[in-house]
TrEMBL record, chain A:
Its EC number is 6.3.5.-. It is an enzyme of class 6 (ligase). It catalyses: L-glutamyl-tRNA(Gln) + L-glutamine + ATP + H2O = L-glutaminyl-tRNA(Gln) + L-glutamate + ADP + phosphate + H(+); L-aspartyl-tRNA(Asn) + L-glutamine + ATP + H2O = L-asparaginyl-tRNA(Asn) + L-glutamate + ADP + phosphate + 2 H(+). Allows the formation of correctly charged Asn-tRNA(Asn) or Gln-tRNA(Gln) through the transamidation of misacylated Asp-tRNA(Asn) or Glu-tRNA(Gln) in organisms which lack either or both of asparaginyl-tRNA or glutaminyl-tRNA synthetases. The reaction takes place in the presence of glutamine and ATP through an activated phospho-Asp-tRNA(Asn) or phospho-Glu-tRNA(Gln). Heterotrimer of A, B and C subunits. Keywords: ATP-binding, Ligase, Nucleotide-binding, Protein biosynthesis. Belongs to the GatC family. InterPro entries: Asp/Glu-ADT_sf_sub_c (IPR036113), GatC (IPR003837). This is Aspartyl/glutamyl-tRNA(Asn/Gln) amidotransferase subunit C.
């Protein structure tokens, strides 16, 4: 399952990363080395094995349904790159 | 004062041999004078530290002695600290002043700890050499041409150089244990879910765990005692009673069954590293422990499984860094997509971007079953191997790292080679087990570490094993020549 420049460009778009054309060659080489190592997984016989997501397989604990989060707007807006009138500011989305 | 352990400093404060302010000033002066050689701190919080020290002195005067009253601690810069920059070693968060404090840090503060500052680390904890930090590499105090390991490289280096007497770290694939080994200090990764992850910047959420690094097992027990416990704010933080780690330290080892997995001593392992770990086990045998051969056949697949699961989780976790709400934003974005893409590409370093791409690829349509699901099935095999072994033995032991500290730049251009630095530590994260690394001597003048792995919630037991070892040896007391 080799990765070429086209795959790099597609995956980079999915991850919202900008990868310049002159970078994709070297990057796909590196990613192929990593995936080559990862391909050792194909040796394992896992046909009867269930996937494991949590080592202790505990279920999610429940807590009381009550408001615990304080209003933090005045704490989080000052650290935003841009904000106005209590909102985060981004470039125009709708013309 | 800097040659003393946290446990000794605690006794000194209680006996009023020195004040918390004097202690904090001493370490702040040392950081100021010597950290230029190491780069182990990203931010030093002198003013806040002195204020906390003064509060500790008042508490001591009033007879209020808590677990960590007046003891200076350096926190890894992955823990959010309100009002203090929390960079995670990344340009992305170079301007990020956290609006709240991580539970682990808050708990230590509630026990009287003094925060000295925030330590350097691999960017977003992705690395084994501390070379991926936006703030430049940390240098190993035993040889400043060498790496301190990673990702908690700053934490381990500042301890070894006696610039701080205690530190916190996080461990996703070995990030506490490997740097502890490479710097000659003790580091513990607790059971997954033992310490709250709230306010700890996420890398791979099913693997990440916070823990202490210290000059001894006793010091790690002291810090873990403060850090551990259930937290409503982290739904994966388990509601299990916290053990009496300090009380468990002195137990005898008579009858202790130590499992020696053959996979931790592969044919191609450096003989000096293998001998070093075997020598540590012989010391424990003298104290009544028995060595038992065991096998963990599936752990040979732990590095490949990890390099699917960890990047997959990272690609999801790191999607929050989008240049909109906090952190880095590119100049003059032409539209929203340009803002996302350029902010992320300029804000993240090369290794972080590689892992996001690997993770995104592994989770993308058509590859999910072949990579992610398969890696999770292998994860179960690995966990089951450990479960079988723990039916026969109490702890497992072997070398922490296949090598001592390597030269800066030696692996920086070869990610796969770098990933192998964690070949003995990664399986423990996949299984969610607690494990520590303790200093066990020197190979060619550089520290080597031995790993002790316990069953779930057996932190007390592995700290006990390391403490008994440290009662009989003095490797953990050695200080790098230049930092005496």
């Amino acid at each position: 399952m080799a990765i070429d420049s086209q795959v790099v460009a597609r995956v980079a778009h999915l991850a919202r990363l900008r990868v310049d054309d002159d970078e994709t060659g070297a990057l796909s080489e590196r990613l192929n080395e990593i995936l080559g190592m990862v391909d050792q997984l194909q040796q394992a016989d896992v046909s009867d094995v269930e996937p494991l997501a949590h080592p202790l397989e505990v279920s999610q604990p429940l807590r009381d349904d009550r408001v615990t989060e304080p209003d933090v707007r005045d704490k989080v807006l000052p650290i935003a790159p841009a904000s106005e009138e209590g909102c985060f500011l981004v470039p125009r989305v709708i013309e | 004062m800097h040659d003393k352990t946290l446990t000794e400093l605690k006794a000194g404060l209680q006996a009023k041999d020195f004040s918390a302010r004097e202690l904090t000033e001493h370490f702040l002066d040392r950081v100021q004078a010597r950290d230029g050689e190491l780069n182990s701190f990203v931010t030093v919080t002198g003013e806040q530290a002195l204020a906390q020290a003064d509060a500790a002195d008042q508490a001591i005067a009033a007879g209020d002695h808590r677990l960590l009253t007046g003891l200076p601690i350096a926190h890894k810069d992955i823990f959010c600290t309100e009002g203090v920059r929390t960079s995670c070693g990344s340009r992305m968060l170079d301007n990020f002043v956290a609006p709240y404090t991580a539970t682990a840090v808050e708990r230590m503060a509630a026990q009287g700890a003094v925060m000295l500052g925030k330590t350097n680390m691999d960017e977003f904890a992705m690395g084994s050499s501390n070379e991926t930090s936006f703030y430049g590499p940390v240098r190993n105090p035993w040889d400043t041409e060498r790496v301190p390991g990673g990702s908690s490289g700053g934490a381990a280096a500042c301890l070894a150089a006696r610039l701080a007497p205690g530190a916190t770290g996080t461990d996703t694939g070995g990030s506490i244990r490997q740097p502890a080994a490479l710097n000659g200090v003790t580091g513990l990764k607790p059971t997954y879910g033992r310490v709250s992850r709230w306010g700890m910047i996420a890398f791979a959420s099913s693997l990440d765990q916070a823990g202490p690094l210290g000059l001894s097992a006793a010091d790690c027990a002291l810090m873990l005692q403060a850090m551990a416990g259930h937290d409503d704010k982290d739904s994966t933080c388990l509601d299990e009673p916290v053990g009496d780690y300090l009380g468990a330290l002195d137990q005898g080892l008579d009858g202790l069954r130590i499992g020696v997995p053959e996979e931790f001593f592969p044919d191609d392992l450096d003989g000096a590293i293998a001998d070093n770990a075997r020598e540590a086990m012989r010391e424990l045998e003298k104290q009544g422990a028995k060595l038992v051969k065991v096998s963990l056949p599936s752990i040979k697949l732990s590095v490949p499984a990890y390099y699917v699961i960890a990047p997959a989780e990272a690609s999801s976790n790191l999607s929050r860094f989008d240049g909109v709400r906090f952190g880095y934003r590119c100049e003059d974005p032409k539209d929203l997509e340009d803002l996302y893409k350029r902010s992320r590409s300029e804000g993240f370093g090369a290794e972080v971007k590689r892992r996001i791409l690997v993770g995104t690829y592994a989770l993308s349509a058509g590859y999910y079953d072949a990579y992610y699901k398969r890696a999770q099935r292998v994860r179960r095999l690995i966990r089951d191997d450990f479960a079988r072994a723990f039916k026969e033995v109490d702890v497992l032991m072997g070398p922490t790292s296949p090598e001592t500290a390597f030269k800066l730049g030696a692996k920086a251009d070869d990610p796969v080679k770098m990933y192998m630095a964690d070949v003995f530590t990664i399986a423990v994260n996949l299984a969610g087990l607690p494990a520590l690394s303790m200093p066990s001597g020197f190979v060619d003048g550089l520290p080597a570490g031995t790993q002790v792995i316990g069953n779930y919630f057996q932190e007390g037991r592995i700290l006990n094993v390391a403490h008994r070892y440290q009662m009989a040896t003095d490797w953990h007391q050695r200080i790098p020549g230049a930092f005496q």
